[in-house]
UniProtKB/TrEMBL annotation:
It comes from the Eukaryota. Residues 76-432 form the Aminotransferase-like plant mobile domain. PANTHER family: AMINOTRANSFERASE-LIKE PLANT MOBILE DOMAIN-CONTAINING PROTEIN, PROTEIN MAIN-LIKE 2. It holds the Pfam family PMD. Residues 1-22 are annotated as: Disordered. This is Aminotransferase-like plant mobile domain-containing protein.
Length: 585
């Protein structure tokens, strides 16, 4: 494989050759020799991946015309229209790309695999993930198609694509008293603009293919299509290409990837300036449509910082399933429509692209016990090159039939032969450590899970005990008068009351709802009883409860939010922990 387009030279020292980053068992990651991580290991330096999405341009076109909004509703793009594109953290995304494996369609982290799922697409974007596949012919008369569906022919059509700036300049402003035809033209233009800027961006950065326009002839038929599944197929394909040696571009729905990373991984997660109240029509991703506080725990432009952080990540820094029942209950119906497909092991289709959706590899993201998964079905990764006139529904007939039968391939919890979920997790990790790329730059050991709790209530109560213990120790070490001591104890009592009420509410929710949508049981929570560095004790994970994340996920910050800081002076936090401490791995 030619790496000349990317390779810049060699680092000063390759990593120590006696440390094996894996995989030891090469039956799963069969493309290791072509992967970026292999080049990094031997000391080669490469250009960072260029992530292509035109978010700022898209944010300039806000639809307010009621007629256009109604057509967006019918066509399946209404809820997405409220999601603003975010500023990408290129260093974080580069570090994630180094861990993406197209053999498994997942990121390989220290504690297991994790990925962007149909579930994430539906909840974060409001795009439909259960419906007809996004596919069709690519040999249309493009000039005639534009005249029929846009009302005019664009100035330049090259290879079936047009300039996205022309769409914005021509259709953004509807004249007063516009006809129904003009409203329909504008709606199609906006959707095509969304597609070109964000969902399926072109490497040129300026054009969008008209094959998507052909699917917008009938707004209602478009509304029945699984656009979210197509977006995910495209994202998988681009991540797979970007993870290989010699590849320097990634053109995909990167706002989705960025928000997904913030939802699931604490490293680099910004603290939002406000917890935005979501309107009834907004998908969950809209809660990131706010400003961020300056981040003291992450250097946004430091690739090495993220590379090291992901190498040494602890289980407490991963939120496997951030979507609590309360959060899901407040979302529009489209975000949970066809939720059974979230756990379907099925091909994802977008014209020439076919990629496998493999939820059985990431069952922790459904609150289930992870078993050793099957190998991922190999698919033919074809391109449009030399196939401009292809009939893709016929070409991918095999995969389309599999997609049509997707509800027959929903993964379930497997019997691991042992009722102890901790044992099952450790058996999985023992297998996983043999087949994975263990690290990129910082050698680490295989983690061991020594204790496991289940359910949101368990998390809240464990964190409650840990927090109250820490605050009491702080008070005991502080020189404060009786009045201040009483005030602090009252605050602690209020805090306990609030947390117990939250635990009771969650227990009532589960009694009414059973387990979460798409889950076989409540989300597991792995906890270890270890001797830990006192300076790290305050970063024990706060469980995801209530309606939102606790920003920063630290006990100290939770205290600040609940206003239960000691009122007398400053205490050295290093004294808060002695001996053994509840600590997430």
């Amino acid at each position: 494989m030619d790496t000349g387009a990317e390779e810049l030279g060699h680092a000063t020292e390759p990593q120590a050759q006696n440390l094996d980053p894996g995989p030891v068992d090469k039956s799963v990651l069969v493309e290791q020799e072509f992967h970026k991580s292999e080049a990094i290991f031997v000391g080669k330096i490469f250009k960072p991946v260029r992530f292509i999405e035109h978010g700022p341009r898209l944010n300039q076109w806000e639809v307010r015309h009621k007629g256009v909004l109604a057509l967006l509703q019918r066509s399946g793009f209404y809820h997405l229209s409220f999601l603003k594109r975010v500023q990408l953290d290129h260093a974080l995304l580069n570090a994630l790309v180094e861990r993406w494996r197209r053999e498994t369609q997942t990121f390989h982290l220290r504690f297991g695999e994790i990925t962007v799922l149909l579930k994430d697409v539906a909840i974060l974007t409001g795009l439909r993930v259960h419906g007809a596949p996004v596919t069709g012919l690519t040999n249309c008369n493009w000039e005639q198609l534009c005249t029929q569906l846009l009302g005019q022919e664009p100035p330049q059509i090259k290879g079936g694509s047009i300039n996205i700036a022309w769409l914005h300049d021509t259709f953004k402003t509807l004249p007063e008293g516009a006809s129904q035809s003009d409203v329909e033209y504008a709606a199609r233009a906006y959707i095509l603009y969304q597609i070109g800027c964000s969902l399926f961006p072109d490497p040129s950065g300026t054009r969008v293919h008209l094959k998507y326009l052909a699917l917008l002839r009938d707004f209602d038929a478009s509304g029945e299509m699984a656009w979210g599944a197509a977006v995910l197929a495209h994202l998988y394909r681009e991540l797979g290409k970007a993870s290989m040696k010699g590849k320097t571009n990634c053109c995909a729905f990167l706002t989705l990837l960025q928000i997904w990373a913030w939802e699931h991984i604490q490293i680099g997660r910004p603290e939002r300036l406000e917890n935005k109240v979501l309107h009834n029509d907004w998908p969950l991703g809209c809660r990131w449509n706010v400003g961020f506080k300056s981040r003291e725990n992450a250097r946004c432009m430091d690739h090495d910082f993220y590379r090291h952080g992901l190498d040494t990540i602890s289980d407490c820094q991963i939120t496997w399933d951030p979507y609590t029942p309360n959060l899901i209950a407040g979302l529009p119906a489209i975000c949970t429509f066809g939720s059974t497909v979230w756990r379907s092991r099925t091909p994802l289709i977008c014209f020439q692209i076919v990629e496998m959706h493999v939820p059985d590899r990431v069952l922790l993201q459904f609150g289930m016990v992870q078993h050793i998964p099957d190998l991922v079905e190999a698919v033919e990764r074809v391109t449009m090159q030399g196939k401009a006139d292809q009939n893709w529904p016929t070409y991918h007939d095999k995969y389309i039939k599999q997609w049509e039968n997707r509800l027959l391939s929903v993964v379930e919890q497997q019997d691991t032969g042992n009722s102890d979920p901790t044992h099952a997790r450790n058996c999985y990790l023992e297998w996983y450590w043999k087949i994975t790329r263990r690290w990129i730059s910082t050698p680490v050991e295989c983690p061991i899970i020594s204790y496991e709790l289940y359910g949101e209530t368990d998390k809240i109560l464990v964190d409650l005990v840990s927090t109250v213990q820490g605050r009491i120790r702080t008070l005991l070490l502080s020189e404060i008068d009786a009045d201040r001591m009483k005030e602090s104890l009252i605050d602690i009592d209020v805090y306990i009351t609030v947390k117990m009420a939250e635990a009771k509410q969650i227990m009532q929710n589960y009694a009414l709802m059973g387990t979460r949508i798409g889950s076989a049981k409540p989300e597991p929570y792995m906890i270890c009883s270890n001797v830990v560095d006192p300076t790290q004790a305050t970063v024990a994970k706060v469980g995801q409860f209530g309606d939102d994340h606790v920003e920063g996920n630290t006990i100290l910050q939770l205290d600040q939010m609940r206003r239960i800081q000691p009122t007398g002076g400053t205490v050295d936090l290093a004294h808060l922990v002695t001996g053994h401490y509840w600590h997430t791995c």
